[in-house]
Structures are given as structure tokens and as C-alpha cells.
Amino acid sequence: MNLRSAIPAMILSFIIYIIYTGSVSPYDLITGVIVAVIVGLLAGEIVVKDPGKALDPKRLAYLVKYTFWYFFVAEVKAHADVIKRALSPKMPLNPAIVRVPYYVETDYAMTTIANSITNTPGTVVVDIDPDRKIFYVHWIDAKTSDPGEARKMISLEFEENAKKIFD
Fold this sequence. Notes:
single chain, 7 helices, about 170 residues
């Protein structure tokens, strides 16, 4: 058992526990610590490959910055676009599945990008080819079928942030 790998998992588990309970009562804090220790000890070596990276303050700062940007900029813009399309039936749609290459190294970074694309209204990752490093993305209004251009429009900002956090 590697305690260094368990610590980041414990911290993340504790934060998630407190966020989901929505409480900082003594009972929830104690229960959160117990759950976090158990999860960290059981899953730490599985989910944390490099504890030094997981506890790097610079990477954590990028994660916080990305989280705020994603939820308050990327998501808001995407939701506004989809709402506008729903309320304006004559607005042109051009749905298509496009290839979007990615250039990150870790599974965590790749998963972050795929989740960010899928959670953003108007785009959904429908398949991933990890050998060729390509996402297949259903795009509600495909503006291009060129993979490089699609990457710039759909996932470049997600990828740049995921690379700073995980690679």
C-alpha cells in the first residue's frame, strides 16, 4: 500500500463527500474523513499513478481555473446556443459526426476532454479511437468536416487545460 498515492484520493473523496452532502456539520465532517480514508486506502494506487503530479499546487490551480472557466464560460455559451436553436426552429442545423484528433498522453486528460465535450450542449463524443487518438463527435451544427478545424472549434481549449492538469 502506497500512502503517497492514497493521500490525493483521500483529499478528493473528502471534498466530493462534503460537496454532495452540502453540510459541514461535525457528523458530516467526521463521516467524510472516515469515508475518504477508506476510499483513499482502497483506491489510491489504482487512481493515482504519480502522487507528485496529483499534489502539485500549480496543477491544482489550473484545475480550479479550468473548473470555473468550464462551468461559467464554456457551458453558458453552449447552453445559450442550444436554447437559441430550440426557440428558433428556422435556425439552420447541420448535424454531423466529425473526427476530432487529440494530443494528450494520459487517460485522465483524454477522459477530461471527452467528458467536457459531451457535457457541453450541442456536442457528444460517440466513440473514441485511442490508437489513432481520435474522438468521434456528434456536433449539432457542424461548421466543418476537417478534423483539424473541428478540433479548434470543439476541443482545443478543453485539451489545453487538460494537458496542464494531467499530462
